[in-house]
Amino acid sequence: MKQLVYILVVITLFISCEKEVQIDLPDVPVELVVEGVVDIDRPPIVVLTKTQGYFDPVDATTINNLFVNGAVVTLNNGSSDFPLTEICTSAIPDSILEQVAGTIGISAQDLTSFNYCVYTSLDPFSWGEAGKTYDLEIQAEGKTLTAQTKIPEPVYFDSIWYELGPLEDSLGFIWVEMDDPDTIGNSYRWFAQRINKYTYGPQQGEIKDAQMIAPLGSIFDDKFFNGQKFEFAYNRGELGNNENQDDEGPEERYFKNGDTVVVQFVSLDRPNFYYFRALEDQWATNGSPFASPGNLPSNINGGLGVFSGYGSAYDTVICVP
User: Which one, of 191, 271, 180, lies nearest residue 224 by Cα?
Assistant: First the structure.
């Protein structure tokens, strides 16, 4: 009994010594964030949003309020200026909905759930051309943002094929062989999309991937293979909010016998390489207490984000072992 009384007294002392700690977080100025891409033979896409506090609530209303409307956005291809028109979800043509989804990392299906807005041009003369340098200027909320990017020449595969993984009888990876140009500093990013439909389960009849998906580790350069012919393989990426039957369990990260896969192989300039490499480092360490926080390297003057020139090459493989 005396021991119990002693324990209660000690607990009471500890409780009485507690002190509520309040931390006043400093006000951080709101920044404009650009996610833009100009790709070969495709309309330019620019998404303009603004930052919010780390502890601010996130809901449908908050997301819609992040978009910056009414900006003056101009793209220059070295010889002409092209004004980009603001188009919101309800008015986005089906022809570019998938590209918009791939640019901002949100599925085309989810895009229809919110009033997402992008700036673009359907003038074919504004679409991307390999070897050209593009300048972007944005005037919004009393600020002027500028950025520049170049579309490198695309690099095409010598061959592409599907190969079963070790100890697998129906699951595997996409392999390619390519010649890296003999100029150091070439940078690449890999995307893939399964365009065949599910034949089973709750997604039966739906296309397996609604957009191009970059797996973790999609970005690399030619530091170790400059000017060489080499082979490499990639696993299947997945969207973070997908809960399809093959995104968990033994089929996760694998392609499967019978899949038809379109690969988008993107050549990038160096500022874009540094941005996407840092972005993937952030993804890989998400939630780690040992990760170092920090802003991503940006090629946006006056704001945050990235303006990318994509030198895209495409190829298709049917997964037959």
Answer: 180
Residue type, 128: G
Residue 92 to residue 120: CA distance in whole angstroms: 10
**CA distance linking residue 247 with residue 251, whole number of Å:** 7
Token pair listed for 55:
């502890």
DSSP letter, residue 188:
E
Q: Cβ–Cβ contacts within 10 Å for residue 185, how many?
A: 12
Neighbouring residues of 13: CB distance < 8 A, sequence distance ≥ 6: none
Q: Say how far apart CA 171 and CA 164 lie, in whole Å.
A: 6
pLDDT tens digit sequence for 17-51: 556 666 666 677 889 999 999 999 999 999 999 98
Residue 195 token pair: 């365009």
Q: Domains in the chain, start-ordered, CATH in brackets?
A: 32-150 (2.60.40), 157-267+312-318 (2.60.40)
pTM: predicted TM-score of the whole model, two decimal places: 0.85
